[in-house]
Write a structure and sequence with these properties.
The chain is mainly β. It has 1 helix and 22 strands.
């Protein structure tokens, strides 16, 4: 039987309405080209944002875009897609509104693109023996670069306690508000105390390993906790120890192991945060005379830059 063309047109229209209703309630979401949410003023300081609207008919001219701080970023264009240009370092929220629908998208703007791993030292670039002077590094006491000790590579830092504490202090070259400092440590039982401290905190913050490798932390006031609050770790063989800090919150936590074997030791622990952030790390063998502690592969990661796509 031949169908009436008008009947077919109505049927098709009803099918389209039904399909639109079945897609769920009306919604608006903002997406960024290539998933970007980071801008660097010295590089690609623009990003394209698109308003994806579902469940309603859309007049693109009625989509309203805005930015939380016009001093940090500006919007050009209109309709479904706009271009956001970074003007000054900071965090901004870009909003899109269409009728009762709205969404917001956070953008992180930097003067220069941050390097997620800001520092790494495996001591392979040093000659064996007493370390030569190097910008950002300060060695004191019986501290040498030793070959053939294992660890990450051929060389490692060897700290031997004498009348003076053996110590390395390193500056990162930038202040970090959220970060991770990790290192490989080999500290046999009986070597005495070993301290790792965050440089830049208002008071000393970090951990102390005792004679039998009980792990203590330093509180906000700079005092030392009891061993039982964090327990012990076995560093008779090489083990990676890590401090993860949040200077904005004024807390840090401790981890041991790496990869799938990484495990929380304790924390978060409060500390008296620095005004600018954490700027370095201090490693100190303050234990028993003549005993040796080895350190290798110090790695520092800027966690504030994690999850940011440029």
């Amino acid at each position: 039987m031949r169908r009436n063309p008008l009947f077919l047109t109505v049927l098709l229209a009803l099918a389209l309405v039904w399909a639109g209703c079945s897609s769920g309630p009306p919604s608006l979401s903002i997406s960024a080209k290539n998933g970007r949410n980071g801008l660097a003023l010295d590089a690609a300081n623009t990003v394209e944002l698109t308003a994806v609207i579902k469940g309603v008919e859309v007049n693109p001219d009625e989509i309203v875009w805005s930015v939380s701080d016009p001093l940090l970023a500006e919007i050009t264009g209109s309709g479904r897609s706009v271009t956001v240009t970074g003007l000054k370092a900071g965090e901004v929220v870009v909003s899109a509104v269409y009728g009762d629908l709205e969404d917001a998208y956070k953008l992180y703007i930097f003067d220069t693109k941050p390097v997620k791993e800001v520092f790494r030292e495996d001591f392979e670039g040093f000659d064996a023996g007493t370390p030569s002077a190097k910008a950002g590094y300060s060695f004191s006491g019986n501290t040498v670069i030793a070959a053939g000790e294992g660890g990450q590579g051929e060389k490692a830092l060897k700290l031997t306690k004498t009348g003076e504490n053996a110590q390395l202090r390193v500056e990162f070259g930038q202040a970090l508000t959220k970060g991770s400092v990790s290192m490989l440590v080999k500290k046999p039982n009986g070597t005495g105390s070993f301290n790792v401290s965050l440089v830049g905190a208002d008071q000393r913050a970090g951990f102390q390993m005792t004679n039998n490798n009980g792990l203590r932390y330093r509180t906000t006031e700079g005092t030392v906790s009891g061993d039982t609050q964090l327990g012990s770790v076995n560093t008779n063989n090489w083990l990676r120890l890590e401090i993860v800090f949040d200077n904005d919150a004024g807390t840090y936590s401790f981890y041991q192991g790496e990869g799938g074997g990484r495990a929380l030791i304790g924390g978060p622990v409060p500390y008296s945060r620095g005004a600018e952030g954490i700027t370095g790390v201090e490693i100190q063998h303050a234990g028993n005379e003549g005993q040796v502690i080895l350190v290798d592969d110090i790695a520092v990661v800027d966690l504030a830059a994690q999850g940011i796509v440029f």
